[in-house]
Design a protein that fits this description.
CATH class of the largest domain: Mainly Beta
Largest sheet: 6 strands, antiparallel
Oligomer: single chain
Structural class: alpha+beta
Strand order of the largest sheet: 1-2-9-4-7-10
CATH topology of the largest domain: Jelly Rolls
CATH superfamily of the largest domain: Jelly Rolls
Shape: globular
Order of helices and strands: EEEEEEEEEHEHHHHHHHHH
Number of strands: 10
Number of domains: 3
CATH architecture of the largest domain: Sandwich
Length: 289
Amino acid sequence: MEIALATTALGDIVVLKHGPEPPNVEPRTSVCAWRGVHFVEENCFVLQFGKREWVIEKGCAFVTEPGRVHQYRHLRGVPPDTVLSVRFNAPLSECMGDELPMLQFADVQPVLGNRNDLRFLRWRLDALLHESPDLALDEWLVDLALATCLTNARSARCLRDVRLAWYAERIEAARQHLAQRFAEQHQLRSVARTVGMSTFQFARMFRELVGSAPHQYLLRLRYRAALHMLLEGASVTDACFECGFSNLSHFSRQFRRRFGLCPSSVKTWPRHWLERRVTRAQSTIWPRK
């Protein structure tokens, strides 16, 4: 049984539940139809790709790729699983292939396990499904695709659900705080205090769950805001200082490194070329590890 939760241009999000038929305890062979990431919401099952076999438990994530053959079966005496399936549509897959050719989704290990950064993304999705428009969901889909491809290291430890929720609420509050006040000056200690965490604990968990250090995340927000201001006709000076930068020459150098063009020439470049640079720059929130 398939329950649709959301559909945007970039992806579909559905819940897969088993119908009244008894769960299969003998292996069944299936060919993947979608490129996507899938989260086990309840119970567990056995998944096999090639010669490798995994028991996929609640909280784990796995990847599918069109044409990939796998086998799956249920454990005897265990209720059937429920899976939240995130399927990437052609526009997202094609964009990633064209603009970020170094991202080879087909090379990602099929089973991602119980990674804390992916569990944080799953936690964020609940609020987006109830409150946010397509734009926020599309941004979340891009974040998920990039995290899947670029973050290969496992977390040092898997957090319990209650502990993950405690961290997730605070890291998300900090993320929103930085997004709403990106032009202001922030100190790591003060941001940590606003969400009730120690400086070290906050810095460690922000990087683990979000995929980048708080300062890197803030810079990404500022440069994106500056780019939008320049596209709307603002001067380089205004874009620099209104977005929280304090040194015009340093801003110009770093802007060129990030986007591949000088801020003063933004309006002279073709729109499709700019979109390509923006897409590449956005991937920096998920640094290679």
